[in-house]
From TrEMBL:
Lineage: Eukaryota, Viridiplantae, Streptophyta, Embryophyta, Tracheophyta
Keywords: Membrane, Secreted, Signal, Transmembrane, Transmembrane helix
Name of the molecule in the record: Putative rlpA-like protein, double-psi beta-barrel
Record keyword Nucleotide-binding present: no
Main location (coarse class): secreted
Organism: Rosa chinensis
Amino acid sequence: MGIQNILIILSMAACLMSTSMATPGIATFYTSYVREYLFKEILKLSFDEKFMILLFFYIGILFFMNLFCILKKPDTSQHSQSLTSMVLFTASACYGSTQQGVMIASAGDAIWNNGAACGKFVTVRCTGPRNPVPHPCTGASVRVKIVDHCPGCQSTLDLSKESFTKIANPVAGIINIDYY
């Protein structure tokens, strides 16, 4: 496999990452670059070379997905800065399948406190990005009810789609927050 093929793989990975990170200018550039140049070059390759490119491309995707899933070391202090992500809720640890509205959250281990957090309300405000999505915060805050436990989340809150969207661009996926 030549250096040109490796560059094609890296360019495609960069395109995928910038598009998934919703960086509009860069995503547009890479999308047009891939469409106008890279795909034409890929069509010139043999079947074996195309297979190897796809194989490395998918391995790269898996690598970057795992890389972005690594969370920071849990904060054991008692301050209220944390990070949050967006999840879909079905049954909850506090209320089973009884609906509690849409402005709800799942508490990480530090907040959960062996179930003492069930039913408590927390006001959450986005403080900044956790990944390369520029300016994810809307400036709003949201009051959510703790309805579930998120084991292993440490000092985080997982917000419902509706509550996350109120404080941040949903494309961001994970953001830094303050809560009280």
